[in-house]
């Protein structure tokens, strides 16, 4: 008997399940060799990059960008949607979700990462503004609806000139009539990923589509730019933070 618990419902969780089922093959007894997948989202695993590309830009639904779902209906596999795991006990080999305790023999943390949230106390320009972060389909749907209602007199500011920030700016320029600005603290957009020539090319392509990109800003200059632009909508895309709190609370070194 092997009871596997997977915390997280993204690509890593889906890949873990797929690999386990393939490795187990016909030796697995679904009545005793079980897999429980716990995800805080109300959706089955989907392709995360599509949150920006497909969902925000074209309005696709999570079902339209879902990962192959056949393995999720295999005997002995249970997908727990909208379920928050609140505690893990490595010594007892249990986890708690809601009012239920689940026993496990093997535990996989596939919790991924979330957007880096800016602290309003050190970034006062966030106050009283319509600020959006993008990670889930719900985030994309809310921003897509907001952008569609903007007028030419409105302004969208994207804080962060990485891949996701530029994708958000492109979507804003496509979906709305608003003026779109990207504010980046680095010397160039996507500077950590691309050589300078490629970064400049990417910035020029956005400029051709009406997006104004300003780089090389320190914190004070960034705040001044936002105060000057007085944006209707702010999209923050300044990196990601690993979601390791649950593991750390369980005393697991990460």
Automatic annotation (TrEMBL):
Pfam families cross-referenced by the UniProt entry: Pyr_redox_2 (PF07992)
Domain of life, per lineage: Bacteria
Every FAD/NAD(P)-binding domain range: 3-254
Protein keywords: FAD, Flavoprotein, Oxidoreductase
Spans traversing the lipid bilayer: none
UniProt keyword ATP-binding, yes or no: no
Gene Ontology annotations for the cellular component aspect, listed alphabetically: cytoplasm
Cofactor dependence: FAD
Single GO MF annotation: oxidoreductase activity, acting on NAD(P)H
Name by which UniProt lists this protein: Ferredoxin-NAD reductase
């Amino acid at each position: 008997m092997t009871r596997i618990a997977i915390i997280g419902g993204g690509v890593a969780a889906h890949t873990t399940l797929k690999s386990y089922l393939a490795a187990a093959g016909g030796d697995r007894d679904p009545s005793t060799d079980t897999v429980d997948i716990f995800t805080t989202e109300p959706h089955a695993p989907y392709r995360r990059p599509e949150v920006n590309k497909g969902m925000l830009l074209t309005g696709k639904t999570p079902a339209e960008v879902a990962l192959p779902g056949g393995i999720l209906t295999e005997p002995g596999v249970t997908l727990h949607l909208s379920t928050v795991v609140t505690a893990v006990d490595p010594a007892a080999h249990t986890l708690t979700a809601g009012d239920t305790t689940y026993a496990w023999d093997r535990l996989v943390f596939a919790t991924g990462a979330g957007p880096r949230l800016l602290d309003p106390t050190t970034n006062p320009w966030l106050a009283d503004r319509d600020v959006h972060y993008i990670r889930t389909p719900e985030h994309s749907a809310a921003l897509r609806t907001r952008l569609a209602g903007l007028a030419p007199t409105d302004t969208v500011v994207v804080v962060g000139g990485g891949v996701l920030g530029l994708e958000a700016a492109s979507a804003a320029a496509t979906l709305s009539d608003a003026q779109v600005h990207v504010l980046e603290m680095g010397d160039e957009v996507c500077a950590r990923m691309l050589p300078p020539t490629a970064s400049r090319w990417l910035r020029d392509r956005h400029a051709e589509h009406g997006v104004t990109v300003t780089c090389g800003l320190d914190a004070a200059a960034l705040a001044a730019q936002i105060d000057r632009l007085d944006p209707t909508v702010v999209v923050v895309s300044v990196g990601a933070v690993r979601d390791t709190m649950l593991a750390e609370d369980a005393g697991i070194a990460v």
